[in-house]
TrEMBL record:
CDD domains: NifB, Radical_SAM. Pathway: Cofactor biosynthesis; Fe-Mo cofactor biosynthesis. The keyword Lyase applies. This is FeMo cofactor biosynthesis protein NifB. InterPro entries: Aldolase_TIM, Di-Nase_FeMo-co_biosynth, DiNase_FeMo-co_biosyn_sf, MoaA_NifB_PqqE_Fe-S-bd_CS, Nase_CF_NifB, NifB_C, rSAM, rSAM_sf. It comes from the Bacteria. Its cofactor is [4Fe-4S] cluster.
Length: 535
């Protein structure tokens, strides 16, 4: 279906091997909690797509993905998406899901603050698209399953085709009802569908899905997982046959499907999946999920990367997924949904201006070209250095968008992580953190958790950083760097990397292996205080 640059069948080099993925209950190799400035230690107070370009795929595929923030890693720096919560019902139960949880500060799939009717959803979409010209994609991703609510889903799409014809339409589904609705999906020109597939073996599936509701019956255990698996595979094959781009989401559950996801990747590629997005399990007890309440932990950063790397050579991997809410609005990594609540929409003067939206997107195209040119220039400089090594490191970046190093360390709620070597500067993931600056001053209790989140990185590129976090990061072995303010990320990362190699070559420093990092789960710490599960 598409040309894939990764054609080798040999697993890529990993930071930890699949065999090193730790079993449930095993002690994790994480750094001890730092003290933070002025504290005495302890835990403190204490969650895209292909990086291929037009040369890597047919033009008609590139035209579909180039402005889609979930299908193009490059586009996610510039284009926004929106989810509308018109699909409350679900036809399966997953052990990692609890849709009753409702917190506006929470970012997890299935979480919403307000369910909408199709009419309300269309009104909201038109208003958002008129205010955010970079919003190019509208998706229905719950809070239940889009295809378990077919009338609401397709009524929304029908009205949007009339009122916002330039938006790309997307669906996210568990796949159970998919084979029955492929024709309807194609009728509304939905050319991007995401299917959540966590297994291709029902013996694995029965550990994840306690029941499904299918053909007017509730099925349980192995039988339920077998039906779900067969329907998912059939739906994927039908979408591929109709030319619909399909992304597969998989939740990495240590001890249950970690090694199995390699087989999932292989099977979905055979059936034409365009992307495979392997996401970490979110399983904090306060979310009230089965896994959360039974102690099933999520993966560490190195475990997640090991599985993703082991799948390279199969279906294209997406690493910039933010596991968005079902009512998310804005660029990936930001959420502007609070600006567009239904009561605020009543006060807005909405004008859907297609010319304004096209004009903005033309400017974005120029910016993207400049970013690519800067990256190629920096790669040429890195390759020309005389150092004879295969050094590869991770670099964290503080950015607020536009593909540039432009965020203050203290304002970061999410770092982007790049893998850098003499031949590449590749986006490999993101790390959510609690914001260090609170009310204009640094919150020392947050600092240890921020350091743990990027502990596997050799440097962090920021627009600015205070003395306290600078000292704390340096002590932890992460180099804070504010020398590349306003530069494109890839160029900045490669420039720092070249300097790092030069310092090693001169004997000024010695390269040290970094440890593991912690994937933060759940709502932001302060915001979550006092929040209870919704009734």
């Amino acid at each position: 279906m598409q040309t894939n640059a990764n054609t080798s069948s040999t697993p890529a080099k990993t930071y930890v091997s699949i065999g090193q993925i730790k079993s449930l209950g095993a002690k994790l190799d994480l750094p001890a909690a730092g003290g933070g400035c002025g504290t005495s230690g302890g835990e403190g107070k204490a969650s895209c797509g292909s990086s291929d370009g037009p040369e890597d795929m047919p033009q008609h595929i590139w035209d579909k993905v180039k402005d889609h923030p979930c299908y193009s890693e490059e586009a996610h720096h510039h284009f926004a998406r929106m989810h509308v919560a018109v699909a409350p019902a679900c036809n399966i139960q997953c052990n990692y899901c609890n849709r009753k949880y409702d917190c506006s500060n929470e970012s997890r799939p299935g979480v919403v603050s307000q369910k909408l009717t199709p009419e309300q959803a269309v009104k909201k979409v038109v208003a958002v698209a008129s205010e955010i010209p970079q919003m190019t994609v509208l998706g229905i991703a719950g809070p239940g399953d889009a295809l378990a609510n077919p009338k609401k889903t397709f009524d929304t799409f029908r009205m949007l085709q009339e009122q916002a014809p330039d938006l790309k339409l997307c669906i996210s589904t568990n796949g159970l009802a998919l084979p029955d609705l492929v024709d309807e999906i194609c009728k509304y020109n939905v050319d991007h569908v995401t299917i959540t597939i966590n297994m291709v073996d029902p013996a694995v599936g029965e550990k994840i899905y306690p029941w499904i509701f299918w053909n007017h019956k509730r099925l349980k255990g192995y039988e339920a997982a077998k039906v779900l698996h067969e329907r998912q595979m059939l739906g994927l094959e039908m979408l591929t046959a109709r030319g619909v781009l399909t992304k597969i989401n998989s939740v990495l559950i240590p001890g249950i499907n970690d090694e199995h996801l390699i087989e999932v990747n292989r099977e979905v590629k055979k059936r034409g999946a365009f992307l495979h997005n392997i996401m970490p399990l979110i399983s904090e007890p306060e979310h009230g999920t089965v896994f959360g309440l039974t102690g099933q932990r999520g993966p560490t950063a190195s475990e997640l990367k090991a599985v993703q790397d082991a799948c390279m050579g199969g279906a294209n991997l997406m690493r910039h997924c933010r596991q968005c809410r079902a009512d998310a609005v804005g660029l990936l990594g930001e959420d502007r949904s609070e600006e567009f609540t239904m009561d605020k929409l009543e006060q807005m003067d909405v004008v859907y201006d297609l010319d304004k939206r096209r004009s903005y997107q033309e400017k974005v195209e120029l910016e993207r070209n400049a970013q690519q040119a800067a990256k190629q220039e920096a790669l040429a400089a890195a390759s020309a250095m005389p150092a004879n090594d295969d050094l590869t490191v991770l670099v964290a970046v503080a950015t607020k968008g536009g593909g540039k190093v432009n965020e203050h360390f203290g304002h970061v709620t999410e770092f982007q992580v790049f893998e850098v070597s003499a031949t590449k500067a590749l986006f490999v993931g993101h790390r959510r953190v609690d914001q260090y600056c609170q009310g204009g001053a640094g919150d020392d209790e947050q600092l240890p958790s921020v350091v743990r989140a990027i502990n596997d990185c050799h440097a962090v590129l920021v627009a600015k950083i205070g003395a306290c976090p600078r000292d704390e990061l340096t002590a932890a072995g992460v180099e804070p760097v504010d020398a590349y303010v306003g530069e494109f990320i890839e160029k900045a990362a490669l420039s720092w990397f070249n300097d790092y190699r030069a310092r090693i070559a001169s004997g000024a420093i010695v390269h040290q292996h970094r440890g593991d990092a912690q994937i933060r789960q759940g709502a932001y710490t302060h915001a979550a205080d006092g929040v209870a599960l919704a009734a």
